[in-house]
Design brief:
Layout lengths: L2 H19 L9 H5 L4 H55 L2
């Protein structure tokens, strides 16, 4: 497959994606890398780089979520207690 033919296929794919989703993929940070791909192997390399970056991102944020989970549970329980107390205070104030 020639580089020119491959580029026209890639351009058509970008246009089709944009038409179907309403998202201009050429604005994505990886688009510049994809624009400079000259073979399917180049695209696979870029996609594998993105996959690795995404896995690293998820791993970092998964650890953060794991750390925050107990805090969120305590805040949730505490907010329920506060809401109940506020309801009791409101009820007492409105009673004749």
């Amino acid at each position: 497959m020639s580089a020119i033919n491959f580029q026209s296929i890639l351009d058509a794919a970008f246009l089709s994606y944009s038409t179907q989703t309403g998202i201009d993929i050429t604005k994505h940070p990886s688009a510049d890398k994809l624009q400079h791909c000259h073979s399917p192997e180049d695209i696979i390399r870029v996609l594998l780089e993105r996959e690795t970056a995404f896995k690293n991102y998820r791993e970092i944020h998964h650890k953060l979520v794991d750390l925050l989970h107990p805090v969120v549970k305590v805040v949730h329980v505490f907010s329920g207690v506060l809401a109940e107390a506020a309801g009791l205070v409101s009820f007492k104030q409105s009673s004749p």
